[in-house]
Structure formats: structure tokens, C-alpha cells
Specification:
By secondary structure, the chain is an alpha+beta fold. Helix content is 32%, strand content 13%. It has helices at 13-21, 27-33, 62-70; strands spanning 2-6, 51-55. It has a two-stranded antiparallel sheet with strand order 1-2. α1 crosses α3 (62-70). The longest helix is centred in the N-terminal third of the chain and has 9 residues, at 13-21. It starts with a strand and ends in a 9-residue tail after the last helix. 18% of the residues are buried.
Length: 79
């Protein structure tokens, strides 16, 4: 299932990968699925409010993802 994720201020692509997939290694899949808004890959300047498409079938660790949702915590290392 596809869903949308709104990037929060201070989040990097690596942060979003952990937030949405539960694993930093999914960052390249995140880029691949969002080339239209991430044309420069890891070099893209990610702004708060950017909408990214997330494919829930690619979640690696549901425990991490669900815990972050339930506790309303955001992974943010400050880009």
C-alpha cells in the first residue's frame, strides 16, 4: 500500500528512511520511489513540508515504525 509522508523540519533522507521504513538502508529505495521530488538523490535539499510517497510493503522493522507513530516521535538529526 502506498501512503504519503510529510517531511518535518530538520529531517534528512536518512531520518525519513528510519521513520517510515524502520531502517536507514531503505534510503535508496525512498529516493527511487520519489525521484520527481528528489531529483538529486542524497544531494537533494530536503525541506519541511515535502510530501514523499512511502510503500508500506518495504517496511523493514514494523516495531520501530509503529513505536514512532504511537509515541508521536520524529527522527530528526537536523539535515
Amino acid at each position: 500500500m502506498l501512503s504519503e509522508y510529510r517531511v518535518r523540519d530538520g529531517q534528512s533522507l536518512f531520518d525519513v528512511s528510519i521513520q517510515c521504513y524502520g531502517n536507514i538502508d531503505q534510503v535508496y529505495r525512498l529516493i527511487e520511489e520519489n525521484l520527481s521530488v528528489l531529483p538529486n538523490g542524497l544531494e537533494t535539499d530536503l525541506a519541511g513540508g515535502t510530501i514523499l510517497i512511502i510503500n508500506d510493503e518495504h517496511i523493514v522493522d514494523e516495531t520501530i515504525v509503529n513505536n514512532l507513530k504511537l509515541t508521536d516521535r520524529t527522527i530528526s538529526t537536523g539535515n
